[in-house]
């Protein structure tokens, strides 16, 4: 199950699956429209047919054709009766209009410069001026930052996850919904962004390559409550840096004062203030 899933979340070291409100609403809704979609019978019958294929007692093409016809019929029926889901979604989330009226003025829109509303439960930002809604990371709380994304001028947010083990991060609502980078479709948090003009991007906070996944970059994260942390921008790996008395290492430019780490000859050095 993907950690980005919106219908279920993984909890604890034993990786227990806990459905979100959306997941529960979908189960009730599917059961209302077509109970076979949430019952184990349909999948069990398909698995039995696959066993027969493996034993040479059924033809692959015939079984495939039968299964495709079953799901084609179910898809057509589901589409025709999809309004039956509305009552279950309204039960958990209310209507969108109600959600907007209960929304809390929160952060600035980069397009119209007006204040957007943070919608309860759904973790979304809605701009009433632009008539546009932005999805945010799930299962956590948000704070605003006095910093605006240099790409789209949206106010940057701090996302603090409620799930243990996940990292507190900076997020631009617009970049998170639709990445400005062609190689990344969506969900671009600041610690994955290569924009050198943003002090939260990985370019300005990178330290070294991740030895865990061999794909990501370890970046400085000052948002963790307990200690300064290095986290990978490609996998969940992270580790804390003990807060011990030390002095700041030499760096070369006054321009580096606003950054969390400094480039000295190709090696990033984390700056720490002297503790008295």
Low-confidence segments, given as residue ranges, are: 247-257, 264-268, 272-276
Strand order within the widest beta sheet: 3-4-5-6
Strand content: 25-35%
**Alpha carbon gap, first and last residue:** 47 Å
How many helix segments?
6
Largest sheet: 4 strands, antiparallel
Number of strands: 15
The proportion of residues forming helix, as a percent range, comes to: 10-25%
Order of helices and strands: EEHHHHHEEEEEEEHEEEEEE
Our Rg estimate from Cα atoms comes to 24 Å
What can you tell me about this protein's structure?
With about 280 residues, the protein is of the alpha+beta class. Helix content is about 25%, strand content about 25%. The chain contains six helices and 15 strands. Strands 3-4-5-6 form a four-stranded antiparallel sheet. Strands 10-11-12-13 form a four-stranded antiparallel sheet, with no helix packed on it. Strand 3 and strand 4 (about 115-120) form a beta hairpin. Helix 1 runs antiparallel to helix 4. The protein is globular, with a radius of gyration of 24 Å. The model is unreliable at about 245-255, about 265-270 and about 270-275 (pLDDT under 50).
């Amino acid at each position: 199950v993907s950690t980005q899933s919106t219908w279920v979340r993984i909890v604890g070291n034993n990786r227990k699956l806990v459905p979100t409100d959306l997941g529960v609403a979908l189960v009730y809704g599917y059961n209302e429209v077509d109970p076979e979609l949430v019952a184990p019978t349909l999948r069990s019958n398909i698995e039995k047919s696959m066993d027969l294929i493996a034993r040479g007692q059924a033809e692959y093409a015939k079984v495939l054709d039968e299964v495709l016809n079953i799901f084609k019929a179910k898809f057509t029926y589901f589409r025709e009766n999809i309004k039956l889901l509305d009552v279950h979604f309204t039960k958990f989330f209310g209507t969108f209009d109600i959600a907007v009226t209960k929304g809390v003025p929160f952060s600035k829109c980069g397009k119209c410069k007006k204040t957007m509303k943070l919608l309860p439960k759904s973790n979304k930002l809605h701009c009433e001026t632009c008539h546009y809604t932005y999805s945010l990371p799930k299962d956590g709380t948000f704070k605003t930052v006095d910093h605006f994304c240099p790409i789209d001028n949206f106010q940057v947010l701090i996302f603090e996850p409620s799930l243990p083990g996940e990292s507190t991060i900076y997020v631009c609502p617009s970049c998170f919904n639709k990445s400005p980078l062609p190689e990344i479709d969506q969900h671009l948090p600041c610690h994955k962004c290569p924009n050198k003009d943003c002090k939260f991007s990985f370019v300005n906070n990178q330290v070294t390559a991740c030895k865990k996944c061999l794909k990501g970059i370890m970046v400085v994260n000052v948002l963790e409550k307990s200690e300064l942390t290095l986290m990978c921008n490609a996998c969940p790996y992270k580790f804390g840096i003990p807060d011990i008395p030390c002095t700041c290492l030499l760096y070369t430019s006054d321009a580096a004062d606003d950054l969390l780490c400094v480039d000295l000859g190709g090696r990033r050095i984390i700056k720490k203030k002297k503790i008295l």
